[in-house]
Amino acid sequence: MHEYSLAMGLVEALREELRRHPVNGRIAKVHVRQGELLVLSEEALQEAWRILTQGGELAGSELAIEKVAVRVRCGGCGYQGPVGYLSEQGWHFAVPVLRCPRCGGRVEVVEGRDLAIVGLSLEEQGSPT
Ligand SMILES: [Zn+2]
Question: What is the CA(39)–ligand 1 centre distance, in A?
Fold first, then answer.
C-alpha cells in the first residue's frame, strides 16, 4: 500500500530527527505538506500513521496535512513559479499542466510531488507557551 510506505517514511524521518533533537513534551500534531502531484488517500495515510505510531513516542499524534501547489522551473526561459491548470466543465478538479506558462517549454518540477514534515505541535501542558 502506497500510503503505508509514505507514512513509514515520515515516521522513520521523524524518529531520526527526534533522536538528534529531542522535544520536551508529547507530540500532539505532526504538520506535513503534500504536493498536489502526489496522489494519495488521506484516510489511508491517517490510518497507516495511527498503526505505525502505536506504542512509540509518536503514539496518539495526529497528522495535519497541508496541500501545496506545484512549482516548476523552465530550462528554456528561466521561469520559476506555479503552472497553469486545465479544468473542463463537469470536472470536480483542476489538473496542473506541466509546461512552462510563459514559453510553453519543458519544465522541471521543483515542488509538489512529495510529502514532507514541516513542523510539530506539542501538547500544551497547562501553561501556554
Ligand atoms: Zn519557459
Answer: 26
> How far, in Å, is the centroid of ligand 1 from the Cα of 118?
30
- What is the dotted CATH code of the domain comprising 2-69+112-122? 3.30.2320.50
Q: Which three cell numbers stand for residue 73?
A: 522551473
User: Burial, 108: exposed, middle or buried (Cβ in 10 Å; 0-12, 13-18, 19+)?
Assistant: exposed
In angstroms, the CA 100 to CA 81 distance is: 9
pTM: 0.80
Tell me the pLDDT tens digit for each residue of 39-97: 999 999 999 999 999 998 899 999 999 999 999 999 999 999 999 999 888 878 788 99
34 CA to middle of ligand 1, Å?
Answer: 25
